[in-house]
Structures are given as structure tokens and as C-alpha cells.
Design a protein that fits this description.
Layout lengths: L4 H4 L12 H12 L6 E5 L6 H13 L13 H8 L5 E5 L6 H11 L9 E6 L6 H12 L5 E7 L7 H4 L3 E4 L5 H14 L3 E2 L1 H10 L4 H15 L2 E2 L12 H12 L3 H13 L4 H19 L11 H11 L4 H18 L5 H13 L7 H31 L49 H57 L12
Parallel strand pairs: 1-4, 1-5, 2-3, 3-4, 6-7
Helix pairs in contact: 3-4, 5-6, 8-9, 9-10, 11-12, 12-16, 13-14, 13-15, 15-16, 17-18
């Protein structure tokens, strides 16, 4: 009679347990040092080895060669426990025996010695399903059971078990089995069953199991039933999944903002009958893997082969990590909204539109460095242009243009030769020497006074002209400063447009 893989390859000794090394080592030491507790509670998700370890522990302490960490598997105790036919190892389904009556029967029978084994062991699966009355009835027996009795509880929802029960048990929290361990387990079983299957297909089955070895073996059974012992084709369509090549093609179209290709691929996925929620989950995990590649954490990708990881490297170079995080957030929010929408295809298209329209993001430090570099370049260009303009302005042939006009004075003093008196005003040009020709009957003293008065008037005119030039210079400096501000402002805006694109608009909040 055919036996499913999950039962056929169920672990029979501690060394066959995968992914629960700490728990296995603790229980081995307890068996070796004869420190078996009277009650254990195993918690964890489905298919991680809770019931299997409970049976192995029962065999270890009841084996004819025991207590031993390697039960023989051939004695009557090991065979009966493995087959579930022992009267001294009682497995109870907590979901079917929730009432207090089942616990009363247990309390009545526990006082009797085991018929053929050393210990009478009660294994209660899904113990959290027991009622409060049943838990209360079990308290006293659980705290002080007979020396020949042991309890092993298993649950997937530890938070539903009362603290009064938990405090009387040794607790072990079973973790999900890593994908790479499940992958190796499937590969071993495929070799034992003489099944030819690609690594990519094994990885698909391992990642779909979500940490449960039993789920992966059940999926493997389904694939074998469909393909037989030669599994070369992609198994994704059989499992209701989207082919990875299609997902990678869709991600490439999203990154390129290609609406047409994205909608076409979305329609193909929907028409293929794929579960849209499962597809969005696949898409989110692929983008997560791209993010891991972007952050240089390829070792944290356990659900893809090396060839598949290498195919994602070009995609990781196209987006910033902040954009990838936004994409994952959009997909997670879409999954939460999926149950509230009546059209899955519309939900898929809207999700793709949101992914395509995510605004581009840049690292702030990178942007600041780019803008600083751009502004420095433009400023240097502007300064070079100003210098060239000034050189051209003064590099003229007419030398008179560079010399301010000489002040005009009365020609009647053109013949004077004597210098002005030493007592001239401070603002006069006393250093000037003018040759004056003597005249008949000419009063030299009066002429000297007139000369100094004339020079005083000329100095006043020069002072007025200098004041006017300084005022004009200040005005010119103000104009140049305003122009410089406008130039710097235009340079900044030009640099921002160069980085973010020409469509950026400036908003002046001061305008009403």
C-alpha cells in the first residue's frame, strides 16, 4: 500500500530531526542524565517536528535498550509507539476531546501502572483547544502525576494555554525550518525515491512550504503525481503560482515605467488562473530579494538558486533602496485590501500603477554633493566670463578713454611761473607748478590770491565729481549684487532641474 512521503520519511530518531538543534540537544542531555521532566509543552507552527519529537522521546525512555538517545526501532516498544498502537503511549486529539469528561477519564486511568512499558505517556495534540474546565481539572494531576506517568503537550497557539498549565511544564518553542534545510531534505528524498527533479523546482517547493517540512513533502507528492519521476518543467503552474521568469519580466517593465508591457503581463497572469494574492506575495518577495542584493546581503536570500539571484542583480542597479521599500509597502497594503474588493484584476492593475508611479528618490548626501559641484562649476564659468568681459572693455586702442579728463582752468594764468604760497588750503593741489609770464604793472600778490581761489574752486568741483562717482559705484555694486543673487539663484534652479528633471516647478509661497 502506498504511503505518503510525509509519513514514510517521518523522523524516527533525534538525529533525523532537521532544524531544531537546540531542542534536540536539550532532550538528548535529559535522557542521558536521567532528568526527564514529568511534563513538556512543544509550541510552534505546523509541520516543524512537535509530534515527531514527542514520539522519539517516548521511544527513548521506553526502548528495551533505554533510556537511550538512539532507540533501536525494532523492539516491541519502538514498533508500537511508531505505529501508534501502544496502550501505554496514548495520543489524544485536543480538538476532539475539549470537554472536562475526557480529562476525568484520563485522571481515572493514569493511576494504573503501564502494561508493558516503563512509563505511561500522554501526548495531547492541539492542547490549546481544551476548555477552561478541562484545564482546571488537569491542574492537580499535571502538578503531581504518578511516577510512571509523563505528559507531552503540543500546540500551534501557545498564547491560548493558561499560565497555570505553562508554569507546570518545560516549554520548547519550535522554529520554522529554514528554506535551505527543507531544500536539502527534499533533495535527499528525491535521490532515495529515484526521482529526477531540477534544483529550481525543489526550491519552489521548499519556499512554498513556509518553514513546514510536512507541507513541502505534501507538495512534492502532488508534483510527483502530475509529472511522474522526471520533473524538468517548471512546476509553478501546477501549484497555482506564477512562473518566476514572468515575475522578473514584470518587475523589469515596472522599473522602466512601461505601462503597456505591465498591463499585458498582468492580464496574462490573471487569465492563467493564478491566485492573485499569491502572485502579489511572490512579487513582494522578489522585490525583497532585489533589496537584499542592493544592500549587499545576498547570503540572506534562501529561497532562490545562485542563477536566479544573478538574474536579479541588473534590476537591483536600477532602483534606490527607498523606492524598493515603498514598493514592498504598496504590495503589503494591497494584500490587506484584496478581500474588500470585488474585482481582483482591477486590484492588480491599480497595484501595478502605484508601483510604476512611485516617485524617484535620491540619497540626500548624494544630491547635496551634486548640487554643490554643479554650482561651483557654474560660478567659475560666470567669473571667467566677467573677467574676459572686463579685459575686452579696457583693452581699447584709444588711450584717452582710460584717462579722466583734466580739469579746465583760466588761460589767463598760463604765463605764471611762481608756485602757490605755502599756506594753501589742504584740499588744493599745491604740488602743481604753473609757469606764468610776468606782465607790466601786474600785482603779483593779487594774482597769487586769485590763483589759489581758482584752485580751490577746481578742488571743490573735483570733490563733487568724486562723490558722484562713489555714489554711482555703490549703486553699481548693489545692481551687481542683485544680479549675482539672480545668477546664483538661477544656477541652483538649473542644477536641481538637471538632477530631478526639467518638469520641476518652483512654488513661491509668498504670492497670494
Amino acid at each position: 500500500m502506498y504511503q505518503v512521503l510525509a509519513r514514510k520519511y517521518r523522523p524516527k530518531i533525534f538525529d533525523e530531526i532537521a532544524g531544531q538543534d537546540n531542542i534536540v540537544q536539550t532532550l538528548k542531555n535529559a535522557v542521558i542524565h536521567d532528568r526527564i521532566a514529568h511534563a513538556y509543552i512543544f509550541s510552534g507552527t505546523r509541520g516543524v517536528g512537535k509530534t515527531s519529537i514527542a514520539r522519539i522521546l517516548a521511544k527513548s525512555i521506553n526502548c528495551e535498550n533505554g533510556p537511550t538517545i538512539n532507540p533501536c526501532g525494532v523492539c516491541s516498544a519502538c514498533v508500537q509507539i511508531q505505529n501508534g498502537s501502544s496502550v501505554d503511549v496514548i495520543e489524544i486529539d485536543g480538538a476532539s476531546n475539549t470537554g472536562v469528561d475526557a480529562i476525568r477519564d484520563l485522571k481515572e486511568n493514569i493511576i494504573y501502572l503501564p502494561q508493558s512499558f516503563k512509563y505511561k505517556i500522554y501526548i495531547i495534540d492541539e492542547v490549546h483547544m481544551l476548555s477552561n474546565s478541562a484545564f482546571n481539572a488537569l491542574l492537580k494531576t499535571l502538578e503531581e502525576p504518578p511516577a510512571h506517568a509523563k505528559f507531552i503537550f503540543a500546540t500551534t497557539e501557545l498564547h491560548k494555554v493558561p499560565e497555570t498549565i505553562l508554569s507546570r511544564c518545560q516549554r520548547f518553542n519550535f522554529k520554522r525550518i529554514p528554506t535551505d534545510i527543507i531544500y536539502r531534505k527534499l533533495k535527499e528524498i528525491a535521490a532515495a525515491e529515484d526521482i529526477s527533479v531540477t534544483d529550481e523546482n525543489l526550491m519552489i517547493m521548499a519556499s512554498l512550504a513556509d518553514g513546514s517540512v510536512r507541507d513541502s513533502l505534501t507538495t512534492f507528492d502532488t508534483i510527483i503525481s502530475y509529472f511522474g519521476k522526471d520533473i524538468k518543467e517548471d512546476v509553478s503552474p501546477v501549484l497555482g503560482l506564477t512562473v518566476k521568469a514572468t515575475i522578473i519580466e514584470l518587475i523589469g517593465a515596472i522599473f522602466k515605467k512601461d505601462y503597456e508591457s505591465s498591463i499585458r503581463l498582468a492580464k496574462e497572469i490573471y487569465d492563467s488562473g493564478a491566485d492573485i494574492r499569491q502572485f502579489m506575495k511572490q512579487l513582494a518577495f522578489h522585490i525583497r530579494n532585489i533589496l537584499m542584493i542592493k544592500l549587499k546581503y545576498k547570503d540572506m536570500i534562501n529561497d532562490m538558486t545562485d542563477e536566479e539571484i544573478n538574474a536579479l542583480i541588473p534590476l537591483a542597479e536600477q532602483k534606490h533602496s527607498e523606492e524598493l521599500l515603498d514598493m514592498i509597502d504598496i504590495l503589503l497594503n494591497s494584500d490587506a485590501k484584496y478581500q474588500k474588493i470585488s474585482s481582483p484584476s482591477l486590484m492588480l492593475e491599480l497595484t501595478l500603477f502605484r508601483l510604476i508611479n512611485i516617485p524617484s528618490k535620491h540619497n540626500v548626501t548624494e544630491l547635496v554633493n551634486k548640487i554643490d559641484k554643479f554650482i561651483s562649476l557654474k560660478t567659475n564659468q560666470a567669473e571667467n566670463t566677467k573677467i574676459e568681459g572686463k579685459t575686452n572693455k579696457f583693452n581699447v586702442n584709444d588711450g584717452a578713454a582710460l584717462t579722466p579728463p583734466a580739469p579746465a582752468f583760466d588761460a589767463s594764468f598760463a604765463r605764471m611761473e611762481t608756485p602757490p604760497k605755502t599756506g594753501a588750503p589742504a584740499n588744493t593741489h599745491a604740488d602743481r607748478q604753473v609757469k606764468i609770464a610776468p606782465k607790466d604793472n601786474y600785482n603779483m600778490s593779487a594774482a597769487s590770491d586769485e590763483l589759489f581761489a581758482h584752485w580751490g574752486k577746481i578742488d571743490e568741483k573735483l570733490a563733487q565729481e568724486n562723490d558722484g562717482q562713489e555714489t554711482n559705484a555703490l549703486m553699481d555694486d548693489g545692481i551687481k549684487a542683485n544680479e549675482a543673487e539672480k545668477i546664483d539663484e538661477s544656477i541652483i534652479m538649473e542644477s536641481i532641474k538637471d538632477i530631478f528633471g526639467k518638469d520641476i516647478e518652483r512654488i513661491d509661497k509668498t504670492k497670494k
